[in-house]
Amino acid sequence: MEVTAVWCDFFSITLVFCLSFVFKNYQFVLALAFAIEEINKNPDFLSNWTLGFDVYDIQFRTWTMFKNPFIWFFGKYKIPNYSCMRDRRSIAVLTGPLGQNWNITGTLQISTDFVKAVNPSKYPEDIFLARIWFLSFNCSNPQSDCVTWDNCPHDASLDWLPGRVFDMTISGHCYNIYNAVYAVAKALHEMLLHQTEVQIMGNRKGTLPSPAQLLHFLKNIQFHNSVGHQVILDEKRKLEPDYDILNIWNFPEGLEFEVRVGKFSPNALHGNQLSLSEDMVEWTTGNTETPCSVCSEPCGPGFRKSPQEGKAACCFNCTPCPQNEIANMTEMEHCVKCADHQYANTQRNQCLLRDESFLAFGDPLGMALACLALCFSILTAAVLGIFVKHRDTAIVKANNRTLSYILLISLIFCFLCSLFFIGRPNTVTCILQQITFGLVFTVAVSTVLAKTVIVVLAFKSISPGRRMRELLVSGAPNLIIPICTLIQVTLCGLWLGTSPPFVDTDAHSEHGHIIILCNKGSLTAFYCVLGYLGSLALASFTVAFLARNLPDTFNEAKFLTFSMLVFCSVWLSFLPVYHSAKGKVMVAVEVFSILASGAGLLGCIFVPKGYNILLMPNRNSLHGFRKKRPHSRKN
């Protein structure tokens, strides 16, 4: 079939389409007619000019194939019953396979009313339309071979025809025809305007435009069509085309209805180039559910694909993501690890923010330990007050009241230093909790050692010889406290100078929490401080154990022995428990060890003395001591 648009009165424009006549292809003629009628109805476009068109059936015979090109190019063929200046040649010819020379976006929505209004009465010279009508609507008389319009349904319309015969959906080829007609018409409009300006300025007579002149304007034409899409004919300037994605609906059988289900736009932003309505796609199964093209079910969020050895690439296993890794989409090859301040939820499909975790004062455990520390501090201060009040009694004097005061004060600080371990850690508290702990406990344990040495020297000085008495009188045992403390200060100074404690985080010990803790800095320095403290405790225990059988009226050697036994037991138990605990429990273990060891010293050394001072005053005097000596000897 060939379609020719004629510029009546002066010249013609020919559109040539080489295709066999099929009813479905008649929509190409309708696209041409629709475009020409739109142009002719526009008073501001090509005024005083009218477009027309003819339709010819191409028969693949030698004479017909040569005859029509002569008409197109030279206008030298006589057509019966046609008088619209056919002796003039066409000014433009658009040839080529449909859709090949045009890069046009979108789909033209030709008016449904226009298509419904098409009938042989409106276009009586269109033999192809008449042929469609007679064959489709049974216009022949069954009693004769005559064909009359009276036999056709008067309200017949092309939209009555099934989709496999005539498709009411306008194809992309029709869109190209529509744009082609408008491109030639707009180029001709520009060319006529240009000629008018030249004639006015040069006072020349009007001449008919030539095809070469029209070609110049046609190459530079650029416009937006009626649906707002840009049309550019210049290959160098035109954008890449958009592509419609069509799905052929063939249900019921033979429908062959083309449905636009998506679009690909190369010029769109990355990620928005392809749009597809999957629910509109009809598969051969007759439904819209996408068939599975793999041998394994898709891996959902929280799982990654693991290929199966020896099988096709579409065969895989779904493996759960490891701990703290997620897969938030389907069909993921690899899981993504969450950041340190985040953790993976139980479904392994989302990273959540970790909650900060530390031994806070508001926690039940932190509150209990803080209350214990304050209670022990107050109790120790009360014992100190009792000793000061009864400082002139025999029991207080006999046990070196100055060292007792030092021991009680150091125990108060031992209990209070545990508060540095509770609350949100910072740089200051991290340094103070370790250094204060090491120093005050060193003072306490070295005081116990000094008291033990004094007890031994006191009883040894009774024996003949002046050396022991001179050591006791000179106060040399009291030097044990500053010397031992100075050594611990040196160790702490080296610790702070090399690798001091600092605030650290632990995101791996507790699921869903990030632990704020104090890093010891140098573990070697920490264990040196703790080891030195343990060696002092062991030395005190050894000396007190050797003095346990001395006369026991005012001898506290047994109490000192037992207090050091408790102290060493607590800290020996601390080491394995501390290393097996995590998070705030680890800090609580250290605080508990501090309180337990301090309470052991307080209870074993001072509770018996307080009992005698408050409840057994008769024993807290020299008279009571003398009354008890014969009884003791009798025993």
- Category by helix and strand content: alpha+beta
Distance between the termini: 141 Å
**Main β sheet profile:** 4 strands, mixed
- Strand arrangement across the biggest beta sheet: 3-1-2-4
**What is the general shape?**
rod-shaped
Summarize the amount of helix as a percent range: 40-55%
* Rg, Å, rounded: 54 Å
Strand content: 5-15%
The mean pLDDT is 76
The strand count comes to 18
- List the uncertain runs: 1-11, 72-87, 98-107, 624-635
Write up this protein.
The protein is α+β, with helices and mostly antiparallel strands and 635 residues long. 45% of the residues lie in helices and 13% in strands. It has helices spanning 26-41, 62-74, 112-117, 127-136, 172-202, 211-219, 364-389, 394-398, 401-417, 427-460, 467-474, 480-498, 523-546, 557-580, 584-615, 622-634, and strands at 2-7, 12-15, 51-56, 90-94, 222-224, 230-232, 243-249, 257-264, 274-276, 303-307, 316-320, 325-326, 336-337, 342-344, 351-353, 355-357, 502-506, 513-519. The strands form seven sheets. Strands 3-1-2-4 form a four-stranded mixed sheet, with helices on both faces. A three-stranded antiparallel sheet has the order 7-8-9, with no helix packed on it. Strands 16-18-17 form a three-stranded mixed sheet. Strand 14 (342-344) and strand 15 (351-353) form a beta hairpin. The termini are far apart. Mean pLDDT is 76; it is low at 1-11, 72-87, 98-107 and 624-635.
